[in-house]
Amino acid sequence: MHCTPKEDEIYIPVPYNLEIPILFADKLIPPIIPANNLLTIEGIALGKKLFFDPVLSGDETQSCASCHSPQKSFTDQQPFSIGVAGNSGNRNAMPLFNLAWNFDERFAWDGKEFGLERQALEPVSNPIEMHGDWKKIGRKLAASSSYKDLFLQAFGSSKIDSTSITKAIAQFERTLISGNAKFDKYLRGETSLTAEEQNGFNVFMDESKGDCFHCHGSDNNPLWTDNKFHNNGLDNVFTDLGFGAVTGDPNDNGKFKSPSIRNLVFTAPYMHDGRFASLEEVIDHYSEGLKKSPTIDPLMKRVNQGGVQLSVVEKTNLKAFLQTLSDYDFVRNPAFQK
Description:
The protein is an all-alpha fold and 338 residues long.
């Protein structure tokens, strides 16, 4: 229990060390923690409270968690999230986990936000999302004695604005670590795979079969994503330019961030526009549904054949492997619940 600080007192928040899974520590460089927003127990607690508080939306009906539910691996299982006015955009809500290892620091499907602190800014004010006014939000929180105390504890100041709010939310989001799926346990020698799951992993890793690992990681990359932007053959013509709209480079048109394939059982529908309702549809796309366009990724090597042409058995095995990346402890973790 921390005493409530007074504004003329110096309160030093308690540093917090991330609980890094052993596979991450062995195979990845340390996570990115900005020097101007180091993790503290107080900052994380404040960020969690803000993440679940609908005061951040214009009509105080929606919170960050409305579209990023812990039980759904911090997504909402909708093709497009519905904003406070009943409007929706054209993007699927991305799941949130292992964000501290996004080393290029570009966030969102199109990479439009640089840095996790900045990523939280736009959804709050976006009129088709939370449609909040940052200045009004700051005034509301400043009028709350409990929030005033929490900001004093976390940042040593009762000044509450978009910068301090998003810093706190980013601290909480960096603690959202998923690293205890069945496949993680298998790599740690704690369990074994079924023949079907092992065969599915082989399909995933085989360049002449699934050829999935270039974009979506491997047993040597526990993030299960390269966090880069690719045109994966969804369309011939682009109604959404994706990364190209951000960079202004036509060579980036139709490219979107490779999402992690962790926790897929919780995050349907799939792709940036939620067009695929099931894992079977996703696998069918890469097997025989690829569409050629000027910016198609070179990794889509068999686009001229429509895809990698998996057999029915290979598809079944691949799905079985993908399901081993489901981290049930993550979606049930009480530290991430309201």
